[in-house]
């Protein structure tokens, strides 16, 4: 049986983790909501890629994967750490093999860089809080985006972003701050800069942490520009991706190696 793998690329802040849990737990909850029967979702497993920094990690072969979800992280893609290079090498094989892949925030950026795009600091600086996002493409045939509303609210916290998409990718959604909030590469790889897995508690935790961090240096963010509210539409993406992975896992697939 193929497995849906969550690739953990870091942890949230200790105070947030103690109260709300960590990235992989939030993603598991979104991928497998309580109202969905276990038989309607593929088996899930977590691989802690960042913890492999001191040694090699054995990643699964494409034929064993129903799908891959790559978490956010406090690491920067541009650091290009050895564990990131190993993860990127494996992801390149997975993407070319046709396995469904979803990258979130750091995962979104890592996918773009791995596939030939460019990642860097956002020239407008930090995007933080609950922000509006709008669909920018025809998604009527997209298996994870076709049921999304044209405009929706999403949680975001990022300093870096995808500055140039890889060849073969198209923009799916964006806003006035971040034009590349979502992209699709070919027909099996998706990246989202926003956080569909965040609860309002987690988002507020990040807002509080950033404000406290800035206050230590004598600066602050304008409070009127910071919002934190429910984002049920954005959260649907994880559920849609899990359904797509389940359908993929049921189909016989002839995997092709990277040329």
From TrEMBL:
<dbReference type="InterPro" id="IPR017926">
    <property type="entry name" value="GATASE"/>
</dbReference>
<dbReference type="InterPro" id="IPR029062">
    <property type="entry name" value="Class_I_gatase-like"/>
</dbReference>
<feature type="domain" description="Glutamine amidotransferase">
    <location>
        <begin position="64"/>
        <end position="203"/>
    </location>
</feature>
<keyword id="KW-0315">Glutamine amidotransferase</keyword>
<protein>
    <submittedName>
        <fullName>Glutamine amidotransferase</fullName>
    </submittedName>
</protein>
<dbReference type="Pfam" id="PF00117">
    <property type="entry name" value="GATase"/>
</dbReference>
<dbReference type="InterPro" id="IPR044992">
    <property type="entry name" value="ChyE-like"/>
</dbReference>
